[in-house]
Amino acid sequence: MYLVIIAIIVGIVLLAWLCYGPIPTIVYKYLKNNRCSEEKEILLTFDDGPDAVYTQQLLNVLEEADIEAIFFLLGQKVQKYPSVAKKIVQQQHRVGLHGSAHENMWFLTPKKTKESIEKGMAQLRDNNMHPNFYRPPYGNINLFTLKYARKQGLKALWWTAIVGDWKKTESTELVERLNHRLTPGMVVVLHDSAEDTGGQQGSAQMMIKALEQWIPLVRQQGYRFIKPSERESE
Ligand SMILES: [Zn+2]
């Protein structure tokens, strides 16, 4: 009898948790249309920075290719590398909030969710950054995440293409994966980070190399890279 009661309680708790985190996430991450347009257009986004080494290398590639992107930054890392963060803004890129630390919203209470977003915003504002976009770490939300993001004037943005670039992968393989996911309105998420946020050593180096190879390839196919400001005007 006790076992049945325990099983029922566990079942109710599990169901409540599914409704709190995983189910809202599935709706926004997979069921919603996350494309940036219906045209042959691509929006580049980079998560988990700024990084002491890789962000500058990435900025050089983007400058050379005349592309503006969105950098979803972690407040803690902005505090750690303020001069790198400043360069992102100076180069006309948009910054978005990726939280203060890289926390999974499925395991945060509503109070902690609010604190995490507010803390991240304060850390960015301390460095003269005023983001309009928000991307939850892992793309995972809970029932309260979007409410608190909206209160800070943030619009949540997911992606249509994720290629596992945080694991060290040959650049040719990454190019193949990106090509495989190429669709009109593609929103790409890549990671300019190192081991401190879960990336494998040297993975960002490969990502940057792959990006350099991929940009001319898609342009040859008639695709153009849209500016984040074009997305903002919606
Ligand atoms: Zn992330």
- Strands, count: 8
Shape: globular
Report strand %. Answer: 5-15%
Q: Count every helix, treating DSSP H or I runs of 4 or more residues as helices.
A: 10
CATH architectural group: Alpha-Beta Barrel
Bound molecules: zinc ion
Quick overview of this protein structure:
The protein has helices at 2-20, 22-31, 54-65, 75-80, 82-90, 110-125, 145-151, 171-180, 203-220, 228-232; strands at 41-49, 70-73, 94-97, 133-134, 155-156, 161-162, 186-191, 224-225. The protein is an alpha/beta fold and 234 residues long.
Describe this structure in words.
- The chain has 234 residues and is α/β, with parallel strands linked by helices.
- It has a single domain (2-232), classed as Alpha-Beta Barrel (TIM Barrel).
- The chain is 48% helix and 13% strand.
- Strands 1, 2, 3, 4, 5, 6, 7 and 8 form an 8-stranded parallel sheet that branches.
- Strand 1, helix 3 (54-65) and strand 2 form a beta-alpha-beta unit.
- Helix 3 (54-65) packs parallel to helix 9.
- The protein is globular, with a radius of gyration of 19 Å.
- Zinc ion (ZN) binds at residues 47-48, 98, 102, 137.
